From TrEMBL, chain B:
Alphabetic keyword roster: FAD, Flavoprotein, Iron, Metal-binding, Oxidoreductase
Family matches, as InterPro entries: 2Fe-2S-bd, 2Fe-2S-bd_dom_sf, 2Fe-2S_ferredoxin-like_sf, 2Fe-2S_ferredoxin-type, 2Fe2S_fd_BS, Ald_Oxase/xanthine_DH-like, Beta-grasp_dom_sf, CO_DH_flav_C
Protein name: Xanthine dehydrogenase
GO molecular function (one): 2 iron, 2 sulfur cluster binding
Domain 2Fe-2S ferredoxin-type: 3-87
FAD-binding PCMH-type domain: residues covered: 172-346
One Pfam assignment: Fer2
Length: 754, 464
């Protein structure tokens, strides 16, 4: 069989993408009577808001309804966690520039835009808190601090032979999914609504729409065939967009499309959390770390959203693949008057792992060693401890293996010498080499979210319909899960019809996030398919008078002893014997537990490992730089689909590279975000990809945990491999501090040039 | 004359009903109910992401990718366009480019893909650098490696362009908009005299943004693209005579040779899509302080030919043309006709620089064009023009004075760097702080020394 486990198949819609046939939400045939909705956004970052007069919008041509907080039949609350009040439309106060105030619905989009512009919100300005330092000074926090500790960090710091400290910051990141946020809500009978949403979390769209409408969940059906990119940005943010469209459809009784224009999307939806890091550490003369006390302060923006989970992941990844005996790590979610930050590929992990890099850099400087020597000396496992401060064990052998392979792949030693020679010879250009090694925990931080469902149906011609709770945002989940089902039934993947994610078919799902899509949904589909296969095997065994165990499903045939029939023939036979050919499957990740107060437990099913080496070239006169080469080794266990995994690794690396170098969010003094589109917010282009870009999947490394076919998750981990670029820039500049994103300006500043 | 917009779309002539709004974007029309071609996507509505890329098929066989989000419908009159739907063969078979992209795993979410496919289809014929071909198309999923692989394997399909519609000018009205497409210079000047407030559309990459993103609906648009005099491009021993309506895409080949540094700079201006529409005349008319094409005009001493119906032609120096932030000498009834660009003198060093967060398709933080005339180890003349440092593109008088007559030595440039601090008081914005602009401009001046004194050295990160 060519299309089961481990086959390098293409993304399920690849050819439909290239011909333009693949339909995104905005491409669907528009229902008759469709109205268009536009958000009115706050022009002020912080202020007291008088009740908004919607009459000026209602008086504009083409307007059908204009909706503010007073028009919400249910609750004006879009909080995904339920732990804080987060509003769909501002009431009493505005807390960030670009905050939704109201929704205007008109016959055409331009009429709605004009009407939204006609609103005159009365806002008494209040001073905005824009910087993390200000928020920290004012103790402006969205939740109580999270403290992870082991041993007596203070005592160990005092006793350590060498004292180190540091402070640095990293920036946020706009998701820049190419398809902006969109929802199309269509009213049905009895208050039913169907919402076509570009969402990673259809169930949450359903819940929040129902909460806003004040109706039962069973009245709202949410569908998503595909997204034009998600990256975490369509986890909680798609929910309120969907809820707003649903509200408009309910209020107007007509189908309503809410598509955020790029600028509105960038103004009103959350981004990756910027972080400020402050730390003290102690090491011995050999650079072995003995103690660490660190504060990781995340800029949560104006509301909690998913900041609790983001900070939890940052804190649990602060030591990354290293061991420090005495540790205290404090995670804070600061409240500022910027758009509420949210999930973004890595979910706090990418920020968290920066900490140890800064600490290792300082230890290397203090002890006169290379970063890599100090890194190797502090790896978890081997002579050092392998237990994380929260109580889970890392695999020291895999940490050392990915790093050894990355070093080999990159020809580290030879290039180090070559680069040093170049740097001695050129008047203004400098090359730099950097490394990074990752241990990334896989599972949702909230134990309850680690569950998934699937619905598999076999038809009497042997064709198969597959549905599960996972969503397709380009990452190749649909083809991977289809491969799982193909493997179970011993048929080619073409026999399997991949269908849109729908709250009607599989209820109560988790978001497609935290890299867990194929782990969770692959198992759920496997359970469903296996249940049907068992029934079919029983039927075949009965027909042929053989044992069930002797029945094999391979190459589209079902065989036992000398008997054989096609899969479709057996399906038809089962129907004739009145045997059900449809099954649901359910999976929950085993052995997870977490104590959020003690910050101890077993939050991750397993760890994904990776290592990378990057080389940069920079100009000391201008700060301009580029990546010349990147080499990386990523542990994907036994890959379900190496082509898809390779695409995830390459894409994640480049996205991480953008976050760390060219992607800069810029607010003016009044708190207005001024980087609102690709003309001002620069994601990597093709020339920014390293011209030498070697990616290797770790070989012969089946997952040790009981994952689906011993594969490992791949969505997020490789984004962090781009951290090697930061280290390479620090190598080339020799600077002790280099804040992120390392734009040419920050590099020149680190060099003392401005 | 009140006509209908007519163009060839995917090989079939489309004559739009009278009253079709001529100032709407091509993208809106393509995705709308009349065409129903939703393969072309809106990703940003500002001509930067490329998801809306379509290709203009020129009568000479050239394929010019365009951003449908910036192109106005009236501008398409007489042209031949192809969208992603129009690539498929008889019986709906995918085009080899479409197959190559799919087989290379060059799609993930697929939203950018139709635009990239169209850029690929044009690139297969046009050739050149793969990165230039892709600079106008953003992909957030793949990391581009598989796309670059697919691009490196493309072959031209040798398909001829459809016969052109052979239409010249026109005048289209709809929903309160008048779109004038004059076919000769006297008509243009006469119209300008009566419509001093009409948008003068030289390419539309700037004005198109006001429609696409800001949803403006100008009552009158005066489009320059059908005036033959403005399309004239001529190379002579003295220099180039560049019609104000010549696109960057057409201009670039003429810049090879003496103007090669300027060509390299302009290949970083926008993208192929933008350069397929944008013009030097438009960049001058917009008069942005960060217009990429403008510092070379200042450094080389370009002369700009203006014309009006009432007063005929006049010629002004580029130095005098900019009068303030986005202000020029252009009178309300005047139109830019031509730019005369002198060649850099013998024994000169001609350097064009641009600092930006991203190498391709980014707006300058600072740009600079330097022209040094050398005589026996000394700098006989220095012309140093900067963008992004003041309210207009401007020359650095103090730094020029410091270099003039000085020896070609590192110390001379250190002195010039000190003088440069007196020339400009730059602003801070999202592209860079005032300090970075000053330090970056100084860095470029220091780099000029190495470029002039050690031409054998690779001096910037993309040269290695």
């Amino acid at each position: 069989m060519k299309t089961g486990m481990g086959a390098a198949l293409r993304q399920d819609s690849a050819l439909k993408h290239t011909t333009g046939e693949a339909r995104f939400a905005d491409d669907m045939l528009e229902p008759p009577g469709l109205l268009h909705a536009v958000l009115a956004l706050s022009p002020v970052a912080h202020g007291a808001l008088a009740p908004l007069d919607l009459a000026p919008a209602r008086a504009m041509p083409g307007v059908v309804v204009a909706l503010g907080p007073g028009d919400i039949p249910g609750r004006n609350d879009i909080s995904p966690s339920g732990k804080a009040r987060e509003r769909l439309f501002a009431e009493e106060y505005v807390e960030h520039w670009g905050q939704p105030l109201a929704l205007v619905v008109a016959h055409t989009r331009d009429e709605a835009i004009a009407a939204a512009t006609a609103l005159r919100p009365e806002i008494r300005p209040l001073p905005p808190v824009l910087e993390l330092e200000e928020a920290l000074a004012a103790n402006s926090l969205l939740m109580p601090p999270m403290v992870m500790q082991r041993g007596d960090a203070a005592a160990a710091l005092a006793a350590a032979p060498i004292a180190l400290d540091g402070e640095f910051r990293c920036g946020g990141q706009e998701h820049f999914y190419l398809e902006g946020q969109i929802a199309l809500a269509i009213p049905g009978e009895d208050g039913d609504l169907t919402v076509h949403s570009s969402t990673q979390h259809p169930t949450e769209v359903q819940h929040i729409a129902a909460r806003v409408l004040g109706c039962d969940y069973n009245r709202v059906s949410v569908q998503c065939r595909r997204m034009g990119g998600g990256f975490g940005g369509k986890e909680s943010n798609a929910s309120w967009v969907g809820a707003a469209a649903a509200l408009a459809a309910r209020a107007s009784g007509r189908p309503v499309k809410l598509r955020l224009a790029r600028k509105a999307d960038m103004a009103a939806t959350g981004k990756r959390h910027p972080f400020l890091f402050r730390w003290r550490a102690g090491c011995d003369a050999a650079g072995r770390l003995l103690a660490l006390d660190a504060t990781l302060a995340a800029d949560g923006g104006s509301t909690l959203d998913l900041s609790g989970g983001v900070v939890m992941r940052a804190v649990t990844h602060a030591l990354n693949a290293c061991d420090v005996p005495a540790v205290r790590v404090t995670g804070l979610a600061c409240k500022t008057n910027t758009v509420s930050n949210t999930a973004f590929r890595g979910f706090g992990g990418p920020q968290g792992v920066l900490l140890m890099e800064d600490v290792l850099q300082a230890a290397a400087r203090a002890t006169g060693q290379s970063l890599e020597a100090v890194r190797e000396h502090n790896f978890a496992g081997g002579p050092n401890g392998d237990e994380t401060p929260y109580g889970q064990h890392l695999e020291g052998d895999l940490i050392r293996r990915v790093w050894a392979e990355a070093k080999l792949l990159s020809a580290w030693d030879a290039r180090r010498a070559e680069i040093d020679a170049f740097n001695a010879s050129h008047p203004t250009l400098r090359r730099g080499l950097g490394s990074f090694v990752l241990a990334f925990g896989i599972s949702f931080g909230i134990v309850a979210m680690n569950q998934a469902g699937a619905l598999v149906s076999v038809y009497t011609d042997g064709s198969i319909r597959l549905n599960h709770g996972g969503t397709e945002m380009g990452q190749g989940l649909f083809i991977k899960v289809a491969q799982v089902v193909a493997e179970v039934f011993g048929v080619e993947v073409e026999r399997i019809r991949i269908t849109a994610t729908s709250t009607d078919e599989v209820p109560n799902t988790s978001p497609t996030a935290a890299s867990t899509g194929s782990d969770l949904n692959g198992w759920a589909a496997h359970v469903a398919a296996t249940a049907i296969r068992a029934r079919m095997a029983r039927a075949a065994a009965a027909l042929w008078g053989l044992a069930e165990e002797d029945v094999a499903f391979t190459d589209g045939q079902v065989t036992a002893g000398n008997h054989s029939m096609s899969f479709g023939e057996l399906a038809h036979h089962c129907w004739s014997q009145r045997i059900s050919l449809s099954a649901t499957g359910f999976y929950k990740t085993p052995d997870l537990h977490w104590d959020p107060v003690a910050m101890k437990g077993h939050p991750f099913f397993y760890f994904s490992y990776g290592a990378s080496v990057a080389e940069v070239l920079l100009d000391r006169l201008t700060g301009e730089h580029r990546v010349l080469r990147a080499d990386m080794v990523q542990d994907c266990g036994r890959s379900l689909n190496p082509a898809i995994d390779l695409g995830q690794i390459e894409g994640a690396f480049v996205q991480g590279l953008g976050w760390l170098t060219c992607e800069e969010l810029w607010w003016d003094a009044a708190g207005r975000l001024r980087t609102l589109g690709p003309s001002t917010y620069k994601i990597p282009g093709s020339r920014d990809v390293p011209p030498v870009f070697n990616v290797k999947l770790l070989e012969d490394a089946p997952a040790r945990a009981e994952t689906i076919f011993r594969s490992k998750a791949v969505g997020e981990p490789p984004l962090m491999l781009a951290t090697a670029v930061w280290n390479a820039l620090r190598d080339a500049t020799g600077a002790a501090r280099l804040d992120l994103p390392a734009t040419p300006e920050r590099v020149l500043r680190a060099l003392g040039g401005c | 004359m009140n006509g209908c917009i007519e163009f060839v779309l995917n090989g079939v002539t489309r004559r739009l009903p009278p009253g079709t709004p001529p100032g709407q974007t091509l993208l809106e029309w393509l995705r709308g109910p009349e065409a129903g071609l939703t393969g072309t996507k809106e990703g940003c509505a500002e001509g930067d992401c490329g998801a809306c890329t379509v290709v203009a098929e020129e009568p000479d066989g050239r394929r010019v990718p365009l951003n449908a989000c910036l192109a106005l419908l009236g501008q398409m009159h007489g042209r031949s366009l192809r969208t992603v739907e129009g690539l498929r063969g008889p019986g709906g078979a995918p085009h080899p480019v479409q197959r190559a992209m799919a087989e290379a795993d060059a799609t993930q979410c697929g939203f950018c893909t139709p635009g990239i496919v169209m850029s690929a289809w044009a690139h297969a014929r046009e050739g050149g650098s793969v990165h230039e071909a892709l600079a106008g198309n953003l992909c957030r999923c793949t990391g581009y490696r598989p796309i670059l692989d697919a691009f490196s394997r493309l072959e031209d399909d040798a398909a001829p362009a459809p016969p052109p519609a052979a239409l010249a000018g026109g005048h289209f009205s709809g929903t309160g908009q008048e779109f004038h497409l004059p076919a000769d210079l006297p008509s243009l000047l006469a119209l300008r005299a009566t419509l001093p407030d009409a948008w003068l559309l030289a390419g539309g990459t700037d004005l198109g943004l006001r429609v696409s993103e800001h949803r403006e609906k100008p009552p009158a648009i005066l489009c320059l693209s059908a005036v033959p005099e403005l399309q004239h491009l001529e190379a002579g021993p003295e220099g180039l005579r560049i019609g104000a309506g010549v696109t960057y895409g057409r201009l670039l080949p003429a810049l090879e040779g003496d103007f090669a540094p300027m060509a390299a700079l302009l290949r970083r201006l926008g993208s192929r899509q933008i350069r397929g529409m944008g013009t030097l005349g438009g960049n001058l008319g917009t008069a942005s302080p960060i217009g990429d094409a403008l510092p070379p005009l200042l450094a080389l001493g370009a002369r700009i030919v203006l014309a009006s119906a009432a007063r005929g032609k006049r010629v002004v120096g580029a130095d005098a043309f900019f009068t303030g932030y986005r202000q020029t000498l252009l009178a309300p009834d005047e139109v830019i006709i031509r730019i005369d660009l002198p060649r850099p003198p013998q024994n000169s060093v001609f350097v064009c620089e641009k600092l930006s967060k991203r190498h391709d398709q980014d707006i300058s933080t600072v740009s600079a064009t330097f022209l040094l005339r050398l005589e026996g180890g000394r700098i006989a003349e220095a012309r140093l023009a900067f963008g992004g440092m003041a309210a207009t593109p401007a020359r650095a008088a103090a730094a020029e004075a410091a270099l003039t007559g000085a020896p070609l030595a590192e110390a001379s440039f250190a002195t010039a760097v000190e003088a440069l601090a007196r020339d400009f008081t730059p602003l801070s914005d999202w592209r860079g702080s005032a300090e970075y602009r000053a330090a970056g401009a100084a860095g470029l001046l220091r780099r000029l020394y190495w470029r002039a004194a050690h031409p054998e050295l690779a001096m910037e990160v993309h040269a290695l």
